[in-house]
Amino acid sequence: MIAEAIRFALSGISANKMRSVLTTLGIVIGISAVITLLAVGAGTSNMIKDQIGKLGTNVLTVNRAISTGGRTTGGSATGTRTRTTNLTLADQQALQDPVLAPDIATTAPVVQTQSVTAALGSSTHSIASTLGTSPSYFGITNFTIAAGRLIDDADAGQPVVVLGNSVAADLATNVSTLVGQTVSLNGQNFTVAGVLAAKGTSGLNDPDDVAMVPYATAQDKFSGYSPSLSSIQVQAKSADVMTEAQNEIQQILDARHQVTSTNRDYQVRNQAQVLSTATTTTQTLTILLSAVAGISLLVGGIGVMNIMLVTVTERTREIGIRKAIGATRGNIVMQFLVESLIISILGGIVGILIGFGASSFTIAGIRPEVQWWTVWLSVAVSAGIGLVFGIYPANKAAKLRPIDALRYE
Amino acid sequence: MQSAHARRPRPVIALDRIRKVYGQGEAEVRALDGVSLTIERGEFVAIVGASGSGKSTMMNIIGCLDAPTSGRYFMDGIETGELDEYQLAQIRNRKIGFVFQSFNLIPRTRAVDNVAMPLAYRKVHRRERHALALEALDAVGLSARAGHLPSQLSGGQQQRVAIARALVTEPVLLLADEPTGALDTHSSEEILDLFGMLHARGRTIVMITHEPDVAARAERVVRMQDGQVIADTGTATAQAAYHAAGGTR
């Protein structure tokens, strides 16, 4: 009987091809919008996850607080570290304490200089950030070498530099030829030890627009012999002990700086956490957009119901004939329900295909990724729409009295 | 009448004081006002009457398309008043074959599929349905047009397809409502000849008509006026035929 109902329904649909196509369109637009938007959402959160990966694994950053009312910087480094307001190399070394800070794996000091101009022959490049740091920095931040070697302990104080990929690419067409050459940074000569592998852009800033020199060299050449660090990079032993590691940092530094949580002159930031907040925001946006798409799906469903009601009215006489020759209510309900199901499932399938098509484009720098669960959901939702919005017209058809239906012109 | 009932095989139609009232109070219309009628197996009956005489209401009630306000109706021995909608659909499907004035074929559906449709509602297998439908089309002389759509057939041909559809389920009653009303003289003649032939083969036919010359083709004429039977020519003939046949029918 179902095969029969499908045959009847198909002949009904093909009788009004244009109308059926337009009705289907409502579902097509709704489903393809839902699939595409969810794919964009998934693409965005993938991108953010990538960024988190680029920041390094389980990394906490200790920065100087910008302003801590009353405590001014430059409070003469009199040798009594207790009065210093700056992060120092001693602070960094104090964090590498297996007893007081068991959850900290390794640390790296960072002295940052901005807008250093690199030059090689006639090529120049303004490096976004030039870091004076220790060899451990590369491991913490997931930087790997593309050519040459990384900085090691033996380089301390030597004029050697490791160039980020964007910097190297600006100075030479083949980055590996740079290794061993002498480049000038702000007019001072440095030997290129190595070139870093590209991390790839992560939207707003380019993580490859960097150069690293040994910490002692940076003090010597750029920042002067100030003992203060721009930041300390800390790697926790695992992602599960990030909070513990943060507490240990605060305990050690609070004691060293003689501050409490109320007047800290430094701050510990978990960059990954910042990005997870961004992920949550993206998810909220995705849900909102999908809800809008869902509403268009609802409107499509109402379109299906509308057309089914027209169809029932139009075929009143046919319903009367069928009833006269022995169709039961169930037969009639089935016929019209199958018709609305076919319309909406067909719309769902076309919508899924269009959704896949739209998701294959890069939208605003985001590569959408179609989630399989949205495909199954779409099929289920479109079938549900057919069922929910088809049942009323189908019932209306089935309830027609045969004599009224036969008399209908 | 009652005693006659007991002796005979069950009649195809037995109406017992059927009343059908539309509307209420001032607007009350008595479409049927106490009609009793018995139609035996093998009869060819024409129900005639002017417009508004109640013959269409009669057709609806006989065809189980409408329920009487009061009175009892036995269809092939089954009291229809006790049946629900589903069972009435079954009765229409198994016991009655309808032929309408405007043919009422399903548009955009081939003749053979139109004929097979009642069998589909009876869960007959598709291949068997097709074979039976072709057989029925053959019986009305239209097997050559099996694949045609209703729109590709003349009025007479469409009505013959409708008759094939009515006959394909082997119903106990062929119920025709003005079967020649929409046809030219020649086609009407063909359809009436077909009815005559079916009657000769023992079919029970009830035909509603307002045309006297069409009614004249029937064996028995029931005349209606104002919701009542005012004349019934054939009852005696039928009984005479019954007795002449030695009471074996």
Order of helices and strands of chain B: HEEEHEEHEHHHEHEHEEH
Low-confidence stretches of chain B: 1-6
Name the strands of the widest sheet of chain A in spatial order: 2-3-8-5-7-6
CATH fold topology of chain B: Rossmann fold
* Radius of gyration over C-alpha positions of chain A, nearest whole angstrom: 34 Å
CATH superfamily of chain B: P-loop containing nucleotide triphosphate hydrolases
Low-confidence stretches of chain A: 68-84
Residue share in helix of chain B: 25-40%
- Let me know the largest β-sheet of chain B: 6 strands, mixed
H and E order of chain A: HHEHEEHEEHEEEHEHEHHHHH
End-to-end separation of chain A: 28 Å
β-sheet strand percentage of chain A: 15-25%
Largest interface: A-B, 23 and 28 residues
Proportion of residues in β-strands of chain B: 15-25%
Helix content of chain A: 40-55%
Structure description:
The complex is a heterodimer of chains A (409) and B (249). Chain A has 409 residues and is an alpha+beta fold. Chain A is built from 12 helices and 10 strands. In chain A, strands 2-3-8-5-7-6 form a 6-stranded mixed beta barrel. In chain A, strand 6 and strand 7 form a beta hairpin. In chain A, helix 2 crosses helix 10, helix 2 packs antiparallel against helix 11 and helix 10 runs antiparallel to helix 11. Chain B is α/β, with parallel strands linked by helices and 249 residues long. Chain B has one domain: Rossmann fold. The N terminus of chain B is likely disordered. A 6-stranded mixed sheet of chain B has the order 6-7-8-3-9-10, sandwiched between helices. In chain B, strands 2-1-4-5 form a 4-stranded antiparallel sheet, covered by helices on one side. Chain B is 37% helix and 24% strand. In chain B, helix 5 crosses helix 6. Chains A and B meet through helix 1, helix 9, helix 10 and helix 12 of A and helix 3 and helix 4 of B.
